[in-house]
Write a structure and sequence with these properties.
The chain is built from 13 helices and nine strands. It has 451 residues and is of the alpha/beta class. Strands 1, 2, 3, 4, 5, 6, 7, 8 and 9 form a nine-stranded mixed β-sheet that branches. Helix 5 crosses helix 6. It is globular. The two termini are 33 Å apart. The N terminus is likely disordered.
């Protein structure tokens, strides 16, 4: 690896403290226990901006906080788009429609000549060497335009401001993208390398028949810690999700700056693993757990897990596997990498997710776009990409042994490796009904809105 994806992000690096401590909860919700039902809190004070995944699982356009007062009455409001757009789940797989006025391109077409492939991607989320290799192979040029949030990306696509060919969506926004006819259905004859993907991704529940997407990166969410500074070992704890709730590490504990991940942590600490819950009481209970956390440890909020654990600035950090896979590059001189730990449940019952790649209908180079998807599914190209951003891809041959042999990963951090079985035993944070998503976001804004 030569860099890490977060280094190129804008609006990064701020460490935030929650808006209120547990002792101040009456100011948010009125007397008694904490509740996020009131809109009296200052929701607009977040100075660090939305994180790379702040809108990761939201429908196009984001969730409107207006009308949140009606949340206690139910999880859907009249006119919500997701009343008619299905919510994919493992027990409710979805095959998206292909429309007569938006059909796949014909087979056997030659790649566009003299073309510049327009790629729309997260900031620093692909190895430039992969783009250069593709352009050399197909004698074309490529231009990469980046975004920092999914809401920003979708808004720009909807305006038609730029005609992008390739887009890197999160799986939660497929419904609005498909129904809006913004994605071009795939012609599989141009993407033979899909058969290098893990079998689970040949017919994913969120896009049966992979009609609109192919898989990109995969990751888990767990707990990272400095083994030489923390007495506890999550692998021996009865409830490792409770590890951050320890007063003796006050000032040295951080959680991810992400509304879904943080609230999920509060849920799992209580043994609740419905990470797509629409139960306002459960969301509220997680909110109260987070208030307790800040009261105990003065918790910090940021996405700098990959630098702060190596440096010792933070001793316990709620973390993403792909970040911690790259953490060894940030070790101070003389500090061995094996002092870094990353825990994800041995039984696989924890948060797991993947991003995707798609072809946009607006693009003028649909053949090259298909071929680019195929290129990124090749094992060697996938390994080249992992060597840059640390996030694995679900390609046959991407294993712990391979990553260690290539010196992309130290043996002591093999717990960051995502396994095919994780997508069968793990829990995915998926698109929520709009009203429920409002509840999640409002809870997070009222907890994490301050500095």
């Amino acid at each position: 690896m030569t860099s890490h994806p977060r280094e190129g992000w804008s609006q990064r690096g701020a460490r935030r403290r929650p808006l209120r401590s547990a002792g101040d909860v009456d100011g948010i919700a009125g007397a008694g226990t904490g509740s996020f039902g009131s809109r009296n809190a200052a929701l607009g004070t977040r100075s660090s901006g939305m994180s790379r995944r702040d809108f990761m699982r939201m429908a196009a356009g984001g969730a409107a906080l207006a009308g949140v007062g009606g949340l206690l009455g139910g999880c859907q409001r009249p006119g919500d788009a997701d009343i008619t757009i299905p919510l994919p789940r493992k027990n409710n797989p979805v095959r998206w429609p292909v429309f007569d006025d938006n059909e796949p391109i014909k087979s056997g077409l030659a790649p566009e000549t003299g073309a510049t492939l327009q790629i729309y991607n997260w900031v620093a989320y692909i190895n430039q060497a992969c783009i250069d290799g593709f352009c050399k192979k197909y004698k074309c040029k490529a231009q990469v335009t980046t975004f920092n949030t999914m809401s920003e990306a979708i808004a720009k696509i909807q305006t038609g401001e730029l005609a992008f060919d390739v887009f890197f969506p999160t799986i939660d926004v497929l419904g609005p993208l498909v129904e809006g006819k913004l994605l071009r259905p795939l012609n599989h004859s141009y993407i033979p390398n899909i058969h290098q993907a893990w079998p689970d991704f040949l017919n994913p529940f969120y896009d049966l028949g992979w009609q609109y997407t192919v898989p990109y990166t995969i990751y888990t969410t767990g707990i990272s810690w400095r083994k030489d500074l923390v007495d506890e070992d999550p692998y021996t704890m009865a409830n490792p999700w409770a590890m951050p709730w320890n007063a003796k590490y006050r000032g040295k504990v951080a959680i991810l700056d992400d509304y879904r991940e943080a609230i999920c942590l509060g849920l799992m600490k209580q043994g609740i693993f419905d990470l797509n819950t629409t139960d306002v009481h459960q969301i509220n209970s997680s909110y109260n757990q987070l208030l307790e956390l800040t009261d105990l440890v003065d918790v910090l909020i940021d996405n700098n897990d990959y630098t702060e654990i190596p440096s010792g600035q933070t001793w316990i950090h709620h973390a993403w596997s792909g970040d911690m896979a790259a953490a060894w590059e940030y070790m101070p001189s003389g500090v061995p990498v094996d002092v870094i730990g990353y825990w994800f449940p041995v039984d696989g019952r924890g948060p797991v997710a993947n991003d995707a790649i798609s072809v946009l209908k607006s693009g003028s180079n649909p053949v090259l776009a298909h071929l680019f998807l195929d290129y990124m599914l090749d094992l060697q190209n996938a390994l080249t990409n992992i060597g840059f951003n640390g996030y694995m891809q679900p390609i046959e041959g991407v294993t712990a042994e391979t990553l260690i042999d290539l010196k992309y990963l130290p043996k002591s951090l093999t717990s960051t490796v995502v396994l095919p079985s994780n997508f069968r035993t793990g829990v995915e944070e998926l698109q929520l009904p709009n009203a429920a998503n409002d509840a999640w976001e409002l809870a997070w804004q009222q907890f994490g809105g301050g500095l």
